[in-house]
Amino acid sequence: GVLARSLSSLASQLKARIGELTAERTHVRQLLVVGRQFMADASHELRTPVMAIQGYSETLLAGGADSSTSRQFLETIHRHADRLGRLVEDMLRLSALEVRPAEEAIVERVDVGGVASAVVETLQARADAHDVTLRLDVNEGIEIGGDPLALEQVLENLVDNAIKYGRRAGTIAIRARTEPRTQPNRVEVEVEDDGPGIDAKHVPRLFDRFYRVDPERSREKGGAGLGLAITKQLVESMHGSIRVDSEVGRGSRFILEFPRFE
Ligand code: ADP
């Protein structure tokens, strides 16, 4: 009786443990697949600018190009070197975020209005260059618990995208609000543009690394599709969430939710 009972309890413990190990193995395998995919995508992205730099510099070194052609080649080399630099920066930022243990994340009182107006100030010149109006609509005293630099980076990425992919002479609104009655512990921050919007079929993958809606058009604008992946990672490091609400022809609204500071 006793022996049989303890044997059967041992058996069920073993079974549970095997189940755990199997789940762990599946998880590790998934991580490996994700890592390999990242390597493949990153190498692919790095290859184009490297090849361009190699090709154009070899041509220049071979001599014979007149000075206006040389100048054009140098400009091309410079543009690709810039792209390479931005790509490496983005990759470093993403991997730094991934290796940082959660307990090292900075959690302090962040005044959303203050950060948002700093972002508007930083991007005002870029907005002017696109004839875009930036509208700030944040009440005083809205505070989240997080990292001010991370929030700044997040809003900068979203507003920068809204300028880059939005419409010329459009309007971008940055808002923050609380819903004291329904969601007293949450703060909602949003960045809305009146640009071309994003087709629903792209939305599920929009925050994936290297994902671009229109690779050709967005490569021209300098992105490798890492911006929103970095943004999402930063938001999650502050225990927040991000989603997008968009309609083709109407515009896009990126909605962030953060825990309120208390
Ligand atoms: P990138 O770093 O190349 O700019 P992101 O990850 O920031 O890439 O964005 C991914 C894709 O989402 C972009 O290629 C762009 O097509 C689309 N996108 C991002 N923001 C907007 C927006 N406000 N309006 C329309 N499309 C957008």
From TrEMBL:
Domain of life the protein comes from: Bacteria
Protein name listed in UniProt: histidine kinase
Enzyme class: transferase
Whole-protein coverage range: 214 to 475 of 475
Catalytic activity annotation: ATP + protein L-histidine = ADP + protein N-phospho-L-histidine
GO molecular function annotations of the record: ATP binding
Compartments it resides in: Membrane
Keywords for this protein: ATP-binding, Kinase, Membrane, Nucleotide-binding, Phosphoprotein, Transferase, Transmembrane, Transmembrane helix, Two-component regulatory system
Lipid metabolism keyword on record: no
Domain Histidine kinase: 41-262
UniProt key word Transmembrane: yes
Species: Pendulispora albinea
E.C. designation(s): 2.7.13.3
